[in-house]
Amino acid sequence: MKKIFRRITAGASLAAIMTLLLAGCGSDAKDAASANSLTYWRELPSATSAVATSLNETPFAKKLQEATGITVNYTHPPQGQASEKFNIMIASKNLPDIIEYAWPQYPGGPGKAIKDGKIIRLNEYIEKYAPNLMTYLNENEDIKKLCTTDEGDIFAFPFIRGTDALCITEGLVLRKDWLDELNLEVPETIDEWENVLTAFKTAKNIESPLDISTYPFTVGAFSGAYGALIGFFVEDGQVKYGPNEAGYKDFLAKMNDWYQKGLVSPDIASLPGDVITSDLLSDKTGAVFGAIGGGIGTWMSSKPNDTFDLVGAKYPVLNKGDLPKFHSHQLACPYNFAAITTSCKNPELAAEFLAYGYSDEGQMLYNFGIEGESYEMIDGYPTYTDNIKNNQEGYSMANMLGQYCLSFDQGPFIQRQEYYEQYAGMPQQQAAWQQFAIGDGINRTVPYIYFDEQENQEIAKKQTAISTFVVESLCKYIMGIEPMENFDEYKAELEALGINEVLEAKQNAYEKYLNR
To answer: How far apart are CA 45 and CA 509, in angstroms?
Structure first.
């Protein structure tokens, strides 16, 4: 790795020397360098932080500078402090040129950020300087709406998952070796799940056949079977809230039944990830909820013996053959967006730089890195090198990708499916990916919607109170602390906390989204 850093640094230094020679000496050279440079604030990917203190140090950033001819100085908030540092920074009048952040979470939405004079409208800049992105957005209306305000202003350069499959990353996982041993099929219906979990408990004499939790809502993998996603969703053009739906009571009753029978973890109120991993690898549980990469990939790499095996299951349904209404489907433009701030003295240059990730050449760099070092083209397929997949210095594949590209994270580019086909390349991961993708969640996911400025705080306050109440009640009903006979009182409390007002506001905001 050290040889790579020296070689690219030398190339960058030569480019810098040539720039100075062409620009002249003294202040003229400094002015020329300054005119061709940008400042960029974003979180440092966790995988990158293990091998570098800044993107500036990586082969990726140096190659990006070489390719665009634009010098970029990245700054990063401390790990885990992005929101706090963003709030402090955004109050300042002197902002970086580019801020990559979860702008849909800005109070009042990104349209308010434009009105507040923090970021600029980008429609004309993208039209002129990023034609590849504009063409893509015009051909993909739903994605264009996700990076557009209700007023029609494009507020940022988005991270785009290039295929629907890339929006699927997690689901239910079972011990395949146990299923095979007990001559059981992968369960599909709630009844089949109960049969499998009962068999696991009896045959393996374990306390927790299913490790799920009420926080985070991994238990929600089963609520969808009852038409009651634990959260907001869209159905037939209406915004709904799962814990307010009729099927939610049936879901709670079933989970309470499983809890009483010892089919789910006794620690269902809170189950840390390290405990789930330990339970799975030490034969204390036979089913969990997990990610394809950091879950199945990690567990299979750490398997305690040769017979240990895992299989992914599609999201449960009530009736055999039904299509799951919900699955863990992310928006095509999740996470952060790269916005140009009002402090940027050269927004044209910033737009040119950000546009690179949507070009054919830029997509290759952002997704795969540097040809000959991090990938090779084999039969037309960008294939990661052994240096990335099986690094001899002990770095994980994520750590290596963290030096050469951003496909594993986010940024202003279109993510390619070939990345995930290799990152999640184990047969168990590939098979689980296919099963997790079965469902209609893409049509029920609530997009980015924004409230009017005057109602924003009121709705946020009500949502917080409702969420707190739902989490507390979820745990109490499942554990039997609260009897199901009191469910009418639960519904009455939801109404008292303002669920109808929240749904009305969200419906109005959703209709504005449809008209963007």
So the answer is: 32
Total domains in the chain come to: 4
| Dihedral sign (CA 41, 129, 362, 132) | positive
Claim to verify: residue 26 and residue 42 sit in the same structural domain: no
> What's residue 67's pLDDT?
98
pLDDT band of 325, cuts 50, 70, 90: very high
Claim to verify: residue 317 and residue 190 sit in the same structural domain: yes
Q: Look at residue 122 and tell me whether its pLDDT is greater than 90.
A: yes
Assess contact for 289 and 172: CB atoms under 8 A: yes
Residue 5 has pLDDT above 80, yes or no: no
Residue 209 and residue 323 in one domain: yes
Distance of alpha carbon 473 from its chain centroid, rounded?
A: 27
Query: What are the tokens at 435?
Result: 């099963």
pLDDT digits (tens, 9 = 90+) for 232-277: 999 999 999 999 999 999 999 999 999 999 999 999 999 999 999 9
Rounded Cα–Cα distance for residues 371 and 482 (Å): 60
Provide the CATH number for the domain around residue 76.
Answer: 3.40.190.10
| pLDDT for the residue 274 | 94
Cis peptide preceding 382, ω within 30 of 0: no
> Containing domain of residue 51, as a range?
37-164+334-415
Structure token digits, residue 473: 């009640």
Rounded to an integer, what distance in angstroms lies between the CA atom of residue 374 and that of residue 383?
8
Burial of 421: CB neighbours in 10 Å, binned 0-12, 13-18, 19+: middle
- What the block records as the tokens of 431 is 């098979």
